[in-house]
# Entry
Amino acid sequence: MTVFSIKALEEELRPVAMHIVLDFIWTRVRKTLKKRLLILDEAWYIMKYEDSASFVYGIAKRSRKYYLALTTATQDVQDFLSTDYGKAVLSNSSIQVLLKQSPTEVDLISQVFYLSQGEKELLLSADIGEGLFFAGQSHVAIKVIAAPFEHTLITSNPQEILSQQKIELEQTQTEQPAAPTQTLVVPNPATLVENPPPTTTDPASGKDSTLPPNV
# Structure
């Protein structure tokens, strides 16, 4: 998986960076044919600029030819409905997912997606992860439940992020190896010579002599 982030760039540099990144991705996709998934998170920011919006529209039109699946995600579907390129991207999408919507936007969305009154009410009262799944002419209510490790990766809740950081810090401190201990052993002087060299008597002098070890 390769991730490109332009969050740290200055505002005036982001449009240029987006164009460079998209051009790099599209060049790589066309060069080597293999199964890929391109996810554009916070796509509203890309669609607000005509050049990058046009680029995304071109990818949406031709992606299938290069074995590429395109997923765009935005918190406000109005960002797509307010531009011609955005509408074209939506119309080329085989699957759409709508989550909770505000009262000011649900009427417009209802017209575009041909929602029933019950579906409108569902989107207005939906909880986190609840919404409508569109596949062709079928509309199905869904509830998305993230696995624990997925939730940890994607959460933007400040309280949860702080809690995760605290847990990671505690784990790091627990896993740090303890400082090695050294034990100094002082030998008993009486045991320093365990095997004293043998003593023999010199026949010539009659004196005792000590043979060197291993002789």
